[in-house]
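Researcher: I'd like a candidate sequence for this fold, 240 residues long. If you have to choose between options at a position, lean toward the conservative one.
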């Protein structure tokens, strides 16, 4: 692949802009400045340094963000800044999308990608990829509430009750809830249906992948192949 083409594919501007950037001497390939836009690069293990910042070449972008409170998962946010404002411009230019949305006041594990098939696999209820949330509630969590969430609660606009895959109390006002799908405000609506109310909500895991404690709120990192495998693990009950 030509260097200018590789640069363009990574979100560094138009073809012409990338050609000019390479010619100006601002781009290094695996640490060596190359000023020929037609310089042949091997995408495997390729690192591009642009104006001193090094980028790993990624055919598709798979990004993990620790979503902070007070950000909307939208390109056109209404009341709060967008989570996309926390990403560098090449990722925006690559048109990464949120893999399912979190509410502005929800924190935790948020995926973003430009791979439409991956987004579909992660969000389709048929694929059975579990999303794990921790909620603190306004009122105490009791056995009846946990049992209602496990056996199914009826939400407005839904024909049939929806059950959590798993649900357990963490302390007297908080619980962990595992869901197979990601309907609009699903956790808040399910907990409201039991007569309680969510105070704070945090997504801790998707599939077998747990949000790393080392990723600070507002930060992002690339996901590696092993992470993607963990993310796509279908849910299996610890009871089975
Ligand atoms: N369920 C909710 O109610 N809100 C979220 O942000 C995610 C799941």
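Model: Candidate sequence:
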């Amino acid at each position: 692949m030509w260097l200018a083409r590789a640069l363009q594919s990574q979100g560094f501007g138009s073809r012409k802009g990338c050609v000019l950037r390479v010619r100006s001497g601002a781009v290094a390939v695996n640490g060596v400045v190359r000023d020929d836009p037609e310089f042949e690069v091997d995408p495997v293990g390729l690192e591009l340094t642009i104006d001193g910042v090094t980028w790993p070449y990624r055919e598709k972008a798979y990004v993990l963000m620790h979503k902070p409170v007070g950000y909307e998962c939208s390109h056109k946010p209404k009341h709060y800044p967008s989570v996309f404002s926390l990403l560098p411009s090449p990722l925006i230019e690559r048109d990464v999308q949120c893999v399912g949305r979190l509410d502005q006041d929800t924190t935790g594990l948020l995926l973003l990608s430009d791979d439409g098939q991956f987004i579909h696999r992660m969000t389709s209820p048929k694929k059975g990829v579990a999303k794990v949330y921790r909620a603190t509630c306004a009122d105490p969590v009791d056995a009846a509430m946990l049992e209602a969430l496990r056996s199914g609660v009826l939400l407005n606009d839904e024909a049939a009750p929806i059950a959590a895959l798993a649900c357990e109390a963490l302390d007297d006002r908080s619980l962990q809830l595992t869901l197979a799908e990601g309907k609009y405000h699903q956790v808040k609506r399910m907990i409201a249906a039991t007569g309680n109310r969510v105070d704070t909500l945090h997504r801790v895991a998707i599939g077998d992948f747990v949000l790393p404690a080392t990723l600070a709120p507002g930060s992002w990192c690339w996901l590696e192949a092993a992470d993607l495998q963990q993310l796509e693990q279908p849910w299996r009950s610890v009871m089975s």
